[in-house]
Amino acid sequence: MVSIKDISKKTGYAVTTVSRALNNHSDVNENTKAIIKQAAEEMGYVPNLIAKNLVSGSSKTIGFITNKLDKDSLLDNFAVRVFLGMFEVEHSYEIILIHYDSRYFSSKSFDEIMRERQLDGAVVQGFDEADIFVKQAFESEYPTIFVDIGFENKTTSYVSSDLSKALQLGMDVIDKSGFTDVSILVGKEASFITKSWLEVINAYRQKETRKNIQLLDGHYSEELAFQVVDQQLQKNKPSEVYFCLSDLMAMGVYRALEKNRLSVPNDVSVLGYDDIIVSRYLTPKLSTIAQNWEKVGQTSVTQLIRLIEKKEVKPQLLDVELMMRESFREKA
């Protein structure tokens, strides 16, 4: 293996000059740098990143820590899309994926995981805000970006979609279509996202009193959404519109409506949120509000690197987009 000393012998420059040239220091003139770098390339020199990182005090490695690699993730694919989005930004960091499975990690703290893997920082996704792991990350000195958890201090910040705009987009199309009887399927109350949804829904209710808005707890689950809507239909007539705050819940609503011999969109309109890949292959194709999960990944890694470099970081709310397909129609 070629060393800096070997390059020094070949070029006649001191070891310190060779090292500084290869690290592009400004006190080495450009002609000397060119000679040394050409010799290094000809000799097949490969930098020792471990040694370099030990000197700099940085591993140049960040983690993407998620607990959302489960059977449901095969449908919504959020974690994978965020992770891949982190590679779409030009940077000099390696990124490793850590699936936080409580069966294996329950005895390890956030700081222990960071130290063991020599991480400079982490993007954390999929957890509830009440999770002890989130509390540990928030209180840690390691730079951390949360996805969909609204915590921030000097070492942490967060990235999320703009839920206020998402709700407004949904309610605007419902209003323009002439519907006044709406069921909104929400998720589990322990999540920061559900609390945020409820805040914007309650604010909307206060200024818009003409609509009959019923909240149903679908727990962000296809099966539980099916159950809660099926139970509703056993007792009452259907709502005119089911606005589902995840496409997975919209899939459960489809099943409940079909079981009760109701047609989408002839009898009932359905609107989703997320724009998971499968939504465009449902029958009928699901109208939904799209989150840009790749953009979430891009923004998260950009903000994390800013934190690592001790630059100012502010919470980021990302844009959403209405995708009108076949599951929604105007009131007859």
Protein described:
- It is a single chain.
- By secondary structure, the protein is of the alpha/beta class.
- It folds into 3 domains: 4-47, 434 Repressor (Amino-terminal Domain) (Orthogonal Bundle); 61-160 and 293-318, Response regulator (Rossmann fold), CATH 3.40.50; 163-291, 3-Layer(aba) Sandwich (Rossmann fold).
- Helix content is 43%, strand content 18%.
- It has helices at residues 4-11, 15-22, 30-43, 49-56, 73-76, 78-85, 102-105, 110-116, 132-139, 163-176, 192-207, 222-235, 247-259, 293-308, and strands spanning 61-66, 94-99, 121-125, 144-147, 156-161, 181-186, 212-217, 241-244, 269-274, 287-290, 316-318, 321-323.
- The strands form 2 sheets. Strands 2-1-3-4-5-11 form a 6-stranded parallel sheet, sandwiched between helices.
- Helix 13 (247-259) links the parallel strand 8 and strand 9 (269-274).
- Helix 1 (4-11) packs across helix 3, helix 6 crosses helix 14 (293-308) and helix 12 (222-235) packs parallel to helix 13.
- The relative contact order is 0.12.
- InterPro entries: HTH_LacI, LacI/GalR-like_sensor, Lambda_DNA-bd_dom_sf, Peripla_BP_I.
- GO terms for molecular function: DNA-binding transcription factor activity; transcription cis-regulatory region binding.
- Pfam families: LacI, Peripla_BP_3.
